[in-house]
Design a protein that fits this description.
- The chain has 4 helices and 7 strands.
- The chain is of the alpha/beta class.
- A 7-stranded mixed sheet has the order 1-7-6-2-5-4-3.
- Helix 2 crosses helix 3.
- The chain binds adenosine-5'-triphosphate and magnesium ion (MG).
- The site of magnesium ion has 4 residues, from helix 3.
- Belongs to the TsaE family.
- InterPro entries: P-loop_NTPase, T6A_TsaE.
Length: 164
């Protein structure tokens, strides 16, 4: 498996001064996403992971509003018309943080497996918030996005790359 840090050096660091920039970055990422892709959004509380997921959903043209899955740990979005004209694909938005990361990783794994979603994960784009450290074990290939918040400012930065 290619080193995660190497993958993150694949692209220049992106500056995201506003939430609109974060969403636009998500729409851009979506253009290259296909069924079976796993996207791992890593970043501290309030880094903009859900905003990025919203942009990805818009770029994929999936149905339903993206919000923080507080009570539902995984939200399924049915395929819609893709603005880029690509093959329609569903999206599953998972909040791995609320699955219990930090407590017991083995238990977290079981929870992810036990979700028993209606959506066939191999036929969807799966976007996981706070997934680094857990979800990477589920599949060897994923698109990793690391979001950071600069101290004392609203400016976010993103590093990203394909871990293969
Ligand atoms: N440049 C920016 N990019 C993304 N979000 C921003 C930015 N500036 C301000 N925000 C705001 O930061 C807040 C947190 O964003 P968001 O919910 O996407 O973060 P998160 O990483 O998903 O948080 P959590 O860890 O709670 O899941 C939102 O209110 C959002 O509007
Ligand atoms: Mg969130």
């Amino acid at each position: 498996m290619a080193d995660r840090e190497d993958a993150l050096r694949e692209h220049a660091v992106i500056h995201l001064p506003t939430v609109e920039d974060t969403e636009a970055f998500g729409r851009r990422l979506a253009v290259d996403l296909v069924a079976g892709d796993l996207v791992v959004l890593d970043g501290p509380l309030g880094a903009g992971k859900t905003a990025l997921a919203r942009g990805i959903a818009a770029g994929l043209g999936v149905q339903g509003r993206v919000s923080s899955p507080t009570f539902i740990i995984a939200r399924e979005h049915r395929a819609g018309e893709r603005p880029d004209g690509g093959a329609p694909v569903a999206m599953v938005h998972v909040d791995a943080y609320r699955l219990g990361l930090g407590a017991d990783r083995a238990a977290t794994f079981d929870e992810l497996d036990a979700l028993d979603l209606d959506t066939d994960l191999a036929g969807a784009v799966v976007v996981v918030e706070w997934g680094e450290g857990i979800v990477e074990h589920l599949t060897d290939r994923h698109l990793l996005v690391r979001l950071r918040r600069e101290p004392e400012s609203d400016v976010r930065t993103a590093q990203w790359g394909r871990v293969s």
